[in-house]
Amino acid sequence: MIKLNKIVRKGKALFLAYDQGLEHGPTDFNDKNVDPEFIIKIAKKGKYTGIIFQKGIAEKYSREIKLSKIPLIVKLNGKTNLVMGEPVSRQLCTVGEAIKLGAVAVGYTIYIGSKHEDEMLSEFESIQREAHKNGLPVICWIYPRGKGVSGRKKKDLMAYAARVGLEIGTDIIKIQSNGKKEDLAWAVKSAGKTRVVIAGGKMKDEKDLIKEVRESMNVGCIGFAIGRNVWQSKNPLKISNKIREVIWKND
Fold this sequence. Notes:
The protein has eleven helices and ten strands. By secondary structure, the protein is an alpha/beta fold.
């Protein structure tokens, strides 16, 4: 049985993402947020339903994560931004390793539209089977990238990403919104019974961010997987509380 209740509360979710160190390099960090302990404290005080780390941080900060009691989601693949060309993100951690690290869910990125799409889809299939065998939910980051998406409408690509998540059997899909409520509503409908969370993305104005959270929840998303908009903020707990209030406004 898939144990979604460990990362979803009352049908909704708020994940604090911190896999950007591998994906973007050190440019996202300052003297405070470069420290994973700072992130763990935000997750605990901000009452997040999950915290997302690559395996290195999950291993080196296992004691702090366990003490925080924040559900751990281990990202199983990743890449740097130093290599140009068609994007591909390969597996760096196994489901078994993630379980030993204390993970209650795992995550994986697929770049649909990349010429390496088939490699990631195949790798995901093995990961999903192993995770489900052990009762772990799988969160799939699905982003349209590469030459295959050239000339396609953002609305169609967003809905396609959501539909791929449903078709391949992921439990939660993480997609990027194009900022248009009607388009996102169609993407959520395309995902069927698969739950949708929205990626926080680059730093936004606080009002714009809260508006995006509200509109996303209104069209059927279950929450957000957010990183830089929180831990790059001057007041991470304040923005966390505002986001949480919108997500669980009727609970």
